Amino acid sequence: MASSTNPGLAGVNAFTRPLSPADVEDCVVVENAFPEQERCSKEKFVYRLTKCPELCLGLFIRTEEGSSVLIGHVIATRSSSNRVTDGSMEMPHDWQSLADDEVVMVNGEVIGSEPKGGSVAVHSLAITPAYQGKGVGRSLMNAYIEYIKSGAVHAERIVIIAHDHLIRFYESVGFENRGPSACQFGGGGWFDLVCIIRGQI
User: Fold this and answer.
1) pLDDT (tens digit per residue) in 3-22
2) Diameter of the chain by CA atoms?
3) Which of 114, 123, 117 lies closest to 56 in space, CA to CA?
4) Residue 108's pLDDT is what?
5) Angstrom distance (rounded) from CA 48 to CA 46
């Protein structure tokens, strides 16, 4: 992501890269941008960045000293559903002992990431407070959509849930509002949004 294309990043050396388990602690800090009941836990970060790091993209700035600081992230898993489900927001309790392609089902619902799912289920688009309100989130989501479209990972669609005040934002970067979501994560009140990558649903 070029700093010159985003005024909110003017004068800084910004770049994106896929995240890894080594970034968990920094992701926990960035996630504090959300209300407590909507934050991803450290344990879920470990799970998601271990099982599907290729779906998780970080936005970093490089300091004058040469170190990198995470200022935003997109965290996602795979799903066969064309909506974000409560199950996809969870993680299997024994995930460390599962085979890479193993799917966990509880009461008929897939729990956590579904390795062969055609949907990328985004669970977090977060920007640290110092960079909020400057178009940085829009730039990061645009970069993420282009990253998925580039074929870096195979996906038919990107799905996300959002509160009503963010619907217009997501529509502006290519998502379609599919109406109220059945997902009850964090107390519910969400809307389903879908960005088609290839084909249609």
Assistant:
1) 445 666 767 789 999 999 99
2) 52
3) 123
4) 87
5) 6
Q: Which residue matches tokens 């990253």? A: 147
Angle, helices 24-31 vs 42-51, to 10°: value is 130
- Highest CATH level, class, for 3-196: alpha beta
- How would you classify the pairing of strands 119-127 and 157-162? parallel
CB atoms near residue 20 (< 10 Å) = 13
Query: What are the domain boundaries of the chain?
Result: 3-196
Q: What is the pLDDT of residues 74-133, one digit of tens each?
A: 999 999 999 999 999 999 999 999 888 889 999 889 999 999 999 999 999 999 999 999
pTM: 0.91
